[in-house]
Write a structure and sequence with these properties.
The chain has one domain. The chain contains eleven helices and two strands, in the order ααααααααααββα. The protein has a two-stranded antiparallel sheet with strand order 1-2. Helix 1 packs across helix 4, helix 2 packs antiparallel against helix 3 and helix 2 crosses helix 7. It is globular and about 55 Å long. About 5% of the residues have low confidence.
């Protein structure tokens, strides 16, 4: 069973790198996000506006989302493996293909870079808006470059290394559980603190270890790419907790250090000055090529993660077979 799961993991990763996320609105990630956004208001408005009521509403939303997606997937996998192990591997690989989105990051970042090189900031902002949920209106080249590097770094952890980590632990179902938690947390992140408490708290817990693995692998990959390995290590340790997203900031810091740039500086939120949102040092001027190198860092870190997870799973499978 372990070796079947290994085959499915490798096939799912290869499928993602070949084809990327389907553009259809019915791709798995988009479907999860769409249903979470549809259900959140129903649950939020059904319960009284007390701390306890809204916390319960958010918890039930997450539970229902897991029930909607995980239960049918488990039944489908059980049925598929009972038909034939090859059928089971193929079905599990398709689930894994749906939860990993590394190719999408590379495709959008390449599009942003091409648009900037052609002097088309509007096209670059449009591509960037697909990669991040932040407001990109009016961003100039420097802002587009900064946000692109940050988005690539965050997505390296969130859409690739973290899903692979949970696929490694729990196969396609493990990856699906993480995807549902992550997309539900994304859907409610602008809601009140109590309604979003459980989804966002679970997302932080589930992402804690993968985020640090992703940052560690980014630092190692920066050495392979002849980037600033020493600075990547230093900035990761210094600035890895500087964003509100305690997990996402891990890879952002590693990327900023490797590229010798400042990715996030002093900002304002609701007219409040926030001096602590600072990641990286401007050791060199920002350049369009930073997007390219960020993309290569992402590909490398995810490839190393997939390889390491696969080798560990293979070793466990061989030992289990011998016993």
């Amino acid at each position: 069973m372990i070796l079947n799961s290994l085959a499915a993991m490798l096939l799912g990763y290869v499928l993602d790198m070949m084809f990327g996320e389907m553009e259809s609105q019915y791709s798995l990630t988009k479907l999860v996000s769409a249903i979470a956004n549809t259900l959140k208001d129903k649950f939020k408005n059904r319960y009284v506006s007390s701390h306890e009521g809204q916390t319960l509403a958010g918890s039930l939303l997450l539970a229902v989302m897991l029930l909607i997606f995980v239960t049918p997937a488990v039944l489908l996998l059980v049925f598929s493996y009972k038909l034939h192990k090859i059928v089971g591997v193929l079905v599990e690989a398709l689930i894994i293909f749906g939860v990993i989105n590394e190719k999408k990051v590379g495709s959008y970042s390449s599009g942003i870079l091409k648009a900037l090189r052609k002097g088309k900031p509007l096209a670059a902002r449009r591509k960037l808006s697909f990669l991040t949920d932040e407001d990109v209106t009016g961003l100039r080249e420097e802002g587009i470059t900064k946000l692109s590097v940050r988005a690539i770094a965050e997505n390296t952890f969130e859409n690739a290394v973290a899903p692979l980590f949970f696929v490694f632990i729990g196969g396609g179902i493990g990856g699906l559980v993480y995807l549902v938690i992550n997309k539900t947390a994304k859907a409610v992140k602008h809601e009140d603190i109590y309604f979003s408490l459980t989804p966002r708290g679970m997302n932080d817990v589930f992402g804690y270890i993968p985020a640090r693995i992703a940052a560690f692998l980014t630092v190692k990959d920066s050495r392979l790419l002849a980037l600033d390995f020493v600075n990547a290590q230093s900035i990761w340790k210094r600035d890895g907790r500087n964003l509100k997203s305690i997990n996402g900031s891990q890879t952002v810091a590693a990327f900023a250090g490797a590229l010798d740039i400042e990715v996030v500086g002093d900002t304002y939120a609701d007219e409040e000055f926030i001096p602590y949102e600072h990641i990286g040092d401007p050791k060199k001027d920002l350049d369009q090529s930073d997007i390219y190198y960020a993309q290569q860092l992402s590909y490398g870190a995810v490839f190393i993660a997939a390889t390491v997870f696969a080798l560990i799973k293979l070793a466990i499978g061989v030992i289990a077979a011998l016993l």
